[in-house]
Predict the 3D structure of the following.
Amino acid sequence: METKRINEDTIQVLIDQDDLVQRGISLPELMGNQERVEDFFYQILDEVDVDHDFSTDEPLTFQVRPLQNNGLELLIIRGSHRGEELARNIKAQLQGYDDEPTDELAGDEVDEALLDPDVDKLERVVVMKDFEDFVALAAVLDTLNLTSDLYQWQDQYYLVLTFLNDGNLTAGEVHDRMAVVYEFAQATTTTAAVLKEHGRLVMEQTAIELARHYFA
């Protein structure tokens, strides 16, 4: 783990795959478990803030992005002087995307739509060569009336996309969105049923939104 003091209010931490393994955690697991994310970030802060300059009583921002080596870069930022997007503290950040204003279906509405026999559902399964492709896809995919489940199976990442047609979703819109998906993923013969039985569910229903929330 490499640490660099950018300025008096910012610490950069480069965490590689071995660092994650030593702590018994993987990047997808961090994204799928909000409590684990918070604990992990503060654990890293305890390790790198040897002079105890950063108090947990003051506003702190944790910014993270994946690296090509399956590790991550973590910026720990103290105070709010760097602007609105850096002023959010970790507690607000980890409340989840569904606390933020959105035109997309809320969690309860998604559950109802998935169970409603009158709502048409179109399911697509794709596979990605690595986690970075999933993050890149999440940054650009429109998730209106769409649920997304991320699975890990046989050293690959699979995304189950379910389009919920409430009468306003056209075949052309689905085609256009899947064209975006195929820029980052490939079609697969593996079904959602196989993944549910044999794969490990990393993030349920809102995988795209979670990835966008943590890595955008």
